[in-house]
Amino acid sequence: MKTTLLLFVTFISLISYSQEISSIKVTIENANSDDGTVGYALYNKDNFMGMPLKVANSEIKDGKTSVVFENIASGTYAILCYHDKNGNGKMDFETNGMPKESYGSSNNIMAMGPPQWEDCKFELKDEPISLNIRF
Fold first, then answer.
1. Strands 21-28 and 37-43
2. What is the DSSP string of 44-72?
3. CA angle at residue 17 from 16 to 19, to 5 degrees?
4. β-pairing, 54-59 with 21-28?
5. Lower CB density within 10 Å: C or N end of the chain?
6. Predicted TM-score (pTM) of this structure
């Protein structure tokens, strides 16, 4: 019985460690100013537009900024980002709900209304990937 239990625990441990880990580099090259920072958020389907899996902020130099999300398991993800021009730590909106600050998403789909999971999702496998997002 102890041997069977030990083999089972070892097997489960190997499965959890065999999950592929990689990274996602995200670059923006068209910020309209170097004021403030750009906030990036990494999501999966379950938390899209809610609490992100990971967040990062980056300064802007000559309209360019980038971050790298490290140690990300293979899977399906989406990235949303915004230019926090005034440095208040949140995206600002007009009274009619339109964004006051530039924003973008993985796959660069810009439609009326908030980003949709199906438009933003991408696959991360066992190789690092690089994404360019446009505001």
1. unpaired
2. -GGGTTSS-SEEEEEE-BTTBEEEEEEEE
3. 75
4. unpaired
5. N
6. 0.83
Which DSSP category does 85 fall into? T
Q: What is the pLDDT of residues 92-130, one digit of tens each?
A: 999 999 999 999 999 999 888 899 999 999 999 999 999
Distance from first CA to last CA of the chain, Å, rounded?
A: 60
- Position of tokens 């810009």? 110
DSSP bridge partners of 43: 78
Residue recorded with tokens 């000559």:
62
pLDDT at 8: 41
Mean pLDDT of 83-91: 96
Q: In sequence order, which residues have a C-beta less than 8 Å from that of residue 74 and are 6 or more positions away?
A: 19, 20, 21, 22, 124, 125, 126
